Each structure stands twice: as structure tokens, then as C-alpha cells.
Amino acid sequence: MKKNILSYVLVIILSFLIGFFSSSTYNYFSSTYECKFQTNENIDSLLTKEHLESTILSNKKYNNISLNDLLNNGIYLIQEDDTYNLISKARYYDSFFSSKSQSVVSRAKQFFQDLLKDYHVNYLYQEIINQNNYINPYITSILSCVVLTLTYTLIDLLFFKRKKETSFVYDNQNIYNNCFHISYWKSCKEFLSSPKKIATISMIFALLLISKAIKIPTGFSNLGLTFGFIFFSIIGLLYGPLAGLLIGLLSDILGYFLFDTSNTAFFIGYVFQAMLSGFIQGLFLYKTRITFFKLLFLRITISLVCNVLIGSFCWGYISNYTFQQTLSYMSLYVVPKNLIFLIPQSIVLYLIIKSLAPILQKHKLLDENISKNITLI
Is-contact 34 122, C-beta < 8 A? Predict the structure, then answer.
């Protein structure tokens, strides 16, 4: 009981920190500050190097504001008749981990006022400035706590407590409770130890390569739907994470040179993405009990880590996107695409593995105890 309470306390603390620092990082890089005002004066010299520099030097609070950052589109002016929008992308944080939004806004407000003090202006916002693209770290932390605690509870109920109720046997030789056994990793190294294993993995690898030539448009930018995840999962199921790692390396390199039509340069980040995907699938499926919810959790992990995070930043890098553009691409295309196909892919994967299990067992590729105990929960 005490151990269970301690686990929940650790999950809550960790999820709070994740929500807090992820939102703070987003605010640090993405928040913009807007000041709308009217004036009849000539303000051509407002954003000159000399005026910006004198404003920064006039107050010690602005020591961390970079003049180069301001000059390189860190602050710009939009004119609409006699109305002006002064928008700044500069960072008014005292430090990277500053959480007090009000103090940051106050610093930005003071900077705008100092910048405009030599002009007669009429501010159109009651608070002088608006902060855009801001996420409240505390609300995000609470949501993170709720989501991750519920997720942990679900995993605990589905994958741990049921072990006491089931007759499924983990012998830690042919079927493992977890991957923290020396014999587990020794068995992972044997995927090339016999002609039969080499022939089987080569055949699945060939099907994986062929599947890369089939890409169904999804309507989400450059993202298409492929079926390589099925063969990746089968390799992980039969031969483990090390085989998945190697197949990920070879399939991405050969797949790029054989079937890639995107006209983009070869990028090592996608190789790492494929290798990590194969490794994770081996960890989830190799010599352990298979359930639908475990497959669903596998697809959630792959979608979040490999597709949303690594995939988005790889595409942003080769497309020369800014951090903000990469986040927009992620939220508008990558996340919706992965959410839409998450459940269908999990169902397809479950049905295929359950259908293939008797055949794989017959050819002594899959343990009988695993083959006959593929269930929903």
C-alpha cells in the first residue's frame, strides 16, 4: 500500500514538473508582445539601431535583451492608417525558467513605454500591451498531472494488477516479465544465429522495404499513411529490440535511396527515428504477453516520441523552419494525423498478430504460451 502511494506521489511530482517546464519553455521561445497605438508624429526613427540601443542602455533591467535579436526581426512595426501595431519577439525573461508571467509582461510593457517616451502616442490597449501565444504553466501542470495520473492508473490496472489474476506464466527464460534480465538481452543477440532466422527476418525486411513504396495521402501536408509499422512490429515480436534497431537502420537508408520522392536531402535524424521505433517495438513485444491495450500503448509511445517529437523537428530542420513554425507544423499536421490513425492502427496490428500467432507458433517462431494468450486486456 505504501509503495503504491509513493508511486502516485512520484508520478504527480514528475507530471507537474513536465507540464510546468514544457509550457515555460514554449512561452520562452514563442510568446510575442503587441502594443497598439496612434500618433500623428513621424516615428521613422523608432526602430533604428541608435534608438533601440539607447533604450536598452537606459535601464539596467534590459541587460539581457540582445540588440542583435531586436534588429533581426525581434521587433517590428505594422502601420494601418494612423494606427500602429508594435510587435516584439524579444525575450523579456530574467532567466530561462522564469514562471512569473506578470513580471515578464511588466518588463515588456516598460520597454515599450521607454521606446515610445519621446513620442506623443495614444495607447489603444488598456494594459498598453498584450501577450500572445502564452500558456499558463500552472494550468498546464494541473492538466499534465490529471492526464499522466490517469494514464499511470490505466497502465497499472491493465498490465500489473491483472498478473495476479491470470494463469499466464513468466518463466524469465522463454517469456519475460520485463526486459531487465541478462538472459533477455542474450537472447536478443541470437536473431542472426541460424539460417532459418536469417531467412525469416530477410523476408520480413523485404516486405518492409516494399511497403515504403506504398504511401497513401492523408491530407496532412507531406504526411502519408504507410504499412511499415506492421512489419516493424512483427520483427520486434519475433526477434526483439536489437533486431528492430538494425532493421530500422537498414530500412530507412535503403528506403530513402530506393523509394523516396520528396526531393529532400538525406537526413540522419530520420535514421535515428526509424532505429528508435524498431527498438521500442521490440521492447514492447519480444517474449512477453501480448494484449490489445499493450499494442495501443505501444502505438501511443511511437506516435508521441518518434512521429510527433522527432519527426516534426527533423522536418523542421531540413525545411529551415523556425521553432515557432515547427510547433505550428506539429500541432496542425503531425498531431492530428497521428491521433486519427492511432486506434485504427492499433486494431489492425492486434488482428494481424492474433491471426499470425498460430502460424508462427506452428513454425516454432513464437512461444505457445504467448500465442494462445493474446487478449484484449
Answer: no
pLDDT on residue 152: 78
DSSP letter (8 states) at residue 323: H
Low-confidence ranges of the chain (pLDDT < 50): 96-97, 99, 163-166
The pTM score is 0.59
The pLDDT, as a whole number, for residue 32 is 84
What CA–CA distance (Å, rounded) separates 48 from 148? 48
Classify residue 354 by burial, with Cβ atoms within 10 Å: 0-12, 13-18, 19+.
Answer: middle
The whole-number pLDDT of residue 165 equals 46
| Helical axes 49-57 vs 101-115, angle rounded to 10° | 130
Q: Where are any strands of DSSP class E within 7-105?
A: 32-38, 75-80, 83-88
pLDDT of residue 157: 66
d(C-alpha 71, C-alpha 62), whole Å: 15
When the candidates are 3.30.420.40, 1.10.1760.20, 3.40.190.10, 1.10.645.10, the CATH number that belongs to 170-371 is 1.10.1760.20
Rounded Cα distance, 211 and 352, in Å: 16
Please name the residues in contact with 148: beta carbons below 8 A apart, sequence gap of 6 or more: 11, 14, 15, 18
Contact residues for 242 (Cβ-Cβ < 8 A; gap 6+): 185, 188, 189, 191, 279, 282
Give me the residues paired with residue 131 across strands. Answer: 33
- C-alpha separations of 59 from 38, 103, 257 in Å: 25, 16, 56
**What is the fold, at CATH topology level, of the domain defined by 32-132?**
Alpha-Beta Plaits (3.30.70)
pLDDT at 236: 94
Per-residue pLDDT at 159: 59
The pLDDT of residue 169: 64
3-state SS record for 110-155: HHHHHHCCCCCCEECCCCCEEEECCCCHHHHHHHHHHHHHHHHHHH
